[in-house]
Amino acid sequence: MLANSSLGFQCEVLMIDIENRTNILEFINTMPKLRTLSIRCKNDKMNSYELSEANEDLIEWLREHLPSTRAYSINRSLYNISHINIWIDKEK
C-alpha cells in the first residue's frame, strides 16, 4: 500500500480517492511527513447536489477519530464539495 512505501514515507501532500473512511486514518497514522490530505471518499454521503449540515457526517467522524497528538483543519473544498481537505499540524 502507498502509505507503507518509500514514496508514502516521503509524501507531504496527497490528493486521493478512497474506498473507506478508515483509510484516512491509515494514511495519517503511517505517513510521517504528510501535512495536507485531500480526499474523496466513496462512502461519504455528500455529493455535489446536496449541501446541508446533516450531510457533514464524514467531517464529524474525522473530528472524533483523528489522533489527538496533532492539530487538524478540516473542510470541504469550495470548488468541489465531494473533496475534503485536511491540513495536519505536527507541532501541536
Helices and strands, in order, run as HEHEHEE
Uncertain runs are: none
Shape: globular
Q: Evaluate the radius of gyration.
A: 13 Å
Domain unit count = 1
Distance between the termini: 28 Å
Strand residue content: 25-35%
Q: Count the strands? A: 4
Helix content: 25-40%
Q: Going across the major beta sheet, what is the strand order?
A: 1-2-4-3
The number of distinct helices, counting runs of at least 4 residues, comes to: 3
Largest sheet: 4 strands, mixed
| Helix-strand category | alpha+beta
| Overall average residue pLDDT | 85
Give the key terms.
92 residues; 26% strand; globular
Overview of the structural elements:
This protein is an alpha+beta fold. The protein has one domain (2-89). Helices cover 25% and strands 26% of the residues. It contains three helices and four strands; from the N terminus they run αβαβαββ. A four-stranded mixed beta sheet has the order 1-2-4-3, with helices on one face. Strand 1 (13-18), helix 2 and strand 2 (36-41) form a beta-alpha-beta unit. It is globular, with a radius of gyration of 13 Å. The mean pLDDT is 85.
